[in-house]
Amino acid sequence: MTATHTPIDPELSDFVDRLDAAVEAHMEWSRRLLRCAVLRVSPGDDVLSAEAHRLCRFGRWFQSAYAQFEALDADAAAAIAHEHEAMHAAVRAICDAVLKGQPGSAEALDTFERTQRAFIDQLAHVKTLALATAVRHDALTGLPMRYGIERDFALCRADALRHGERLWVLMLDIDHFKAVNDRYGHPAGDAVLVHFAQALRKQLRKSEPLYRFGGEEFLVLLRTADAAQALRAAERLRAALARSPATLPDGRSLTVSFTAGLAPVGAEEELSTAVARADAALYRGKQAGRDRVVLAE
Questions:
Q1: What is the pLDDT of residues 234-266, one digit of tens each?
Q2: pLDDT band at 32, cuts 50/70/90?
Q3: Beta bridge partners of 174
């Protein structure tokens, strides 16, 4: 198995950078509010407009990136939208009064301080989730990695039992992957990994999560009634790959195969032992000539 070090996805890196910029920009509001109060100068249209929460740089980006926020934490996304708008309204009320030669209200100032704090706390929470996602997901294939499988494993097993099914661990290893890298180069190897992940995802049900376990090794949590169905499901994946060759960066096509080990999960069995049994079956499949699915003993 080839070790890989996955960089943070550039899109996610940009998302985190924009979160940091939003915190800095809205902390700057305290200085602009002070200048307005002391010097009675306008803080700008991005503060005074009734639509300021949509006109400010963060507001414009937040609207376009709302789906990303919602995917990370829908409640936090809604809270950020609420606190951001309320914060703008409070600052506008304070600045409007000051520019008219009147004192700002204590209530508006309290609202500004409270909503600004809540806004920044929620952004920090979303940033933590985004960075955790970067660690748990493979930037190349988009698949979750092995971190967090323990929790999914327990949930999948419990759900399978409720539906009268059995959980299976399917370990897959792309055949001759090192030779692909050596012969065609690492960009070709990356193209094969992306193709492999996409081809498998198209064949799996939503209740059957797929993970990049490491290098060219992948793991699927299958749910079926019996061993015959589990083997048919695994063979369906193998047949799908045989029908769909990968396209390399130079335009050439390459048919990809895999060797897999399939292990049924016991009612009280831990993930580590099920993975070990699936891995042992996979190894026997390699010894037998690869391009096959082997049922664990």
A1: 999 999 999 999 999 999 999 999 999 999 999
A2: confident
A3: 258
* C-beta atoms surrounding 102 within 10 Å: 9
List residues with catalytic annotation.
216
Spatial distance between the Cα atoms of 139 and 131, rounded to a whole number of angstroms? 12
Calpha distance 277→296 (Å, rounded): 6
pLDDT in tens, 140-188: 898 888 777 888 898 899 899 889 999 999 999 999 999 999 999 999 9
- Residue of 132, 141, 39, 28 whose CA lies nearest to 87: 28
Count of CB atoms situated within 10 Å of the CB of 203: 16
Which strands form 258-264's sheet, in the order they lie side by side? 210-214, 217-224, 166-174, 258-264, 293-295
Domains of the chain: 10-136 (1.20.120.30), 149-295 (3.30.70.270)
Whether 218 contacts 212, CB under 8 Å:
yes
Q: What is the DSSP letter of 169?
A: E
CB neighbours (10 Å) of residue 12?
16
Burial class (CB within 10 angstroms; exposed 0-12, middle 13-18, buried 19+) of 27: exposed
Helix (H, G, I), strand (E, B) or coil at 108: helix
The percent of residues in the chain predicted with pLDDT above 90, rounded, is 48
Quote the pTM value: 0.61
> Are 261 and 280 contacting, i.e. CB atoms less than 8 angstroms apart?
yes
State the SS3 of 227-283.
HHHHHHHHHHHHHHHHHCCEECCCCCEECCCEEEEEEECCCCCCHHHHHHHHHHHHH
Q: At which residue do the structure tokens 């294939």 appear?
A: 141
Whole-number Å distance between alpha carbons of 62 and 77 = 9
For residue 185, the tally of other CB atoms under 10 A from its CB is 14
